[in-house]
Amino acid sequence: VFVAMQFNSLTVQAQDAFAKCPQCIVTIIPSSTPLGASWSDPVGNNPSNRTLTWTPQISDAGVHIITLGLRDAFGLSLKNSQYSFYISVVMPPCGYGTQDPVSENCT
Question: Could you tell me which residue, 9 or 105, shows the higher pLDDT?
């Protein structure tokens, strides 16, 4: 769950089943990303990590489908290599207002 109007991040990791192979490289390829969200450059080869960062707007509230593909060192898609998941963006507790950190009241 991501909260609108707040910075959010999510890290995904992928690894080849034959991880003992030093030349095995896995690249995570995002194929759908919500407007305004961005992915970090890949970190590592096998496993490989990428982080999605996003500060969704109020208008982004709802469900967003993210799809990722996996490729090897030769640019070939790995078997069963497309994965989809969703991110639910919820309204912040105070809508457009701010929340007092002590009393938790909205202003």
Answer: 9
Q: Which residues contact 9 (CB under 8 A, 6 or more apart)?
A: 51, 52, 53, 54
* Residue partners of 43: CB distance under 8 A and separation at least 6: 49, 50
Q: Could you tell me the pTM of the whole model?
A: 0.81
- Structure token pair of residue 76: 């070939």
**41, amino acid identity:** D
More confident residue, 48 or 104: 48
Question: Kind and range of the H or E element at 28?
Answer: strand 27-32
- According to DSSP, the residues that pair with 13 across neighbouring strands are 49
Which regions of the chain does DSSP assign to beta strands (E)? 2-3, 8-14, 27-32, 38-39, 48-54, 62-71, 77-90
In angstroms, the CA 24 to CA 26 distance is: 7
